[in-house]
Design a protein that fits this description.
Helix content is 39%, strand content 17%. The protein is α+β, with helices and mostly antiparallel strands and 316 residues long. The protein folds into 2 domains: 6-103, no CATH class; 115-299, Glutaredoxin (3-Layer(aba) Sandwich), CATH 3.40.30.10. The strands form 2 sheets. Strands 1, 2, 3, 4 and 5 form a 5-stranded antiparallel sheet that branches. Helix 5 runs antiparallel to helix 6 and helix 5 (183-196) runs parallel beside helix 7. The longest helix has 18 residues, at 147-164. Mean pLDDT is 88; it is low at 1-26 and 306-316.
């Protein structure tokens, strides 16, 4: 089974248009240079990272200024690679002489290892089910046209809901992929339902995933309008909301948040900040949730009442 993700697209383009042969090092513009020797030099670092990840010329590289890190003797920077709306960030640490690089994450033993993710995810005004204040939160970044999202949606709405009830809070975040022609329209429509009658959102969520195979770009509007009428919603207000795209900004904010979290495919779940990309089989997801429920009895450093500060915006 083949799954195409945004990150796969980035790598495919990179491989198809990679740098000149590295036996004669060149910069992106073709100017001959010496081999990289100092990680603190942004040109050297860019050249090194492009080779490390086979990031070809179509991929834009941005390197933040080095600053003091939480690790004594090491300076830190963030390298951002982006292509057509998809982005990936790398955290690098360099020695003071620029000779050695370390890539990875730094953890504090007395803090939640997923604290940064929890602080980035914004669940304010996001569709949710389960009790507020639950010690475990599942956040799903999803695409209404994605077949794997339909599978995951059924798991969340059936097994998870039936197994845990109010012990787990589930939030929905939109992440329509550009390769899906009616996904953005479906996301906008879903938010139009939610902002007017929040309790109806999950009816919409279940309906569109259950009928996904019968929806096309040409018939989506008529099918959505018929569903709205069946649900007893204000058809005129819904049509105006969809046609004006008044909820599009909320979708863009959700997608920007996902990119900052390095979401590159749908579905992607976060369980108390722990990233689980791809459709999760129920035994695997249940195991993570059970572990987190027990862990939070001791640490109480995540969940719906973790006190995390929401941060919304595009990757820096």
């Amino acid at each position: 089974m083949v799954r195409l993700t945004l990150l796969t697209l980035v790598f495919s383009v990179a491989l198809a248009a990679q740098l000149s042969p590295l036996d004669a090092p060149k910069t992106v513009d073709g100017t001959a240079v010496a081999p990289p020797s100092n990680a603190l030099n942004k040109s050297d670092l860019e050249f090194y990272v492009r080779h490390l990840y086979v990031y070809g010329p179509p991929i834009e590289i941005e390197i933040a200024d080095f600053s003091e890190s939480e690790l004594p003797g090491l300076l830190k920077t963030t390298v951002s690679a982006s292509y057509q709306g998809s982005s990936r960030q790398h955290s690098f640490y360099a020695t003071a002489d620029g000779k050695h690089l370390v890539e990875g994450s730094v953890y504090e033993i007395d803090a939640n290892p997923f604290e940064q993710n929890n602080g980035t995810i914004n669940t304010i005004a996001a569709p949710a089910f389960g009790k507020e204040g639950a010690s475990v939160v599942v956040v799903a970044y999803s695409d209404f046209q994605c077949p794997y999202c339909a599978q995951e949606g059924a798991v969340l709405r059936n097994q998870l809901k039936n197994e845990y009830g109010d012990r787990v809070r589930v939030y929905f975040r939109d992440y329509p992929l550009p390769m899906h022609p009616w996904a953005m329209d479906a996301a906008i429509a879903g938010r139009c339902v939610y902002v007017r009658e929040p309790e109806k959102f999950w009816n919409y969520h279940d309906w569109i995933f259950e009928n996904q195979k019968n929806v096309t770009p040409e018939n989506f509007s008529s099918k959505a309008a018929a569903w709205v009428s069946e649900q007893g919603l204000d058809s005129l207000a819904f049509a105006q909301c969809v046609s004006s795209k008044e909820t599009a900004m909320q979708i863009e904010e959700s997608m920007a948040e996902g990119r900052k979290l390095n979401v590159t495919s749908t579905p992607t779940l976060f369980v108390n900040g722990r990233m689980l990309p791809g459709a999760q089989e129920w035994p695997r997801l249940k195991g993570v949730i059970d572990y987190e429920l027990d862990y939070q009895k001791v640490t109480k450093n995540a969940g719906d009442n973790c006190g995390c500060e929401a941060e919304v915006g595009f990757p820096q």
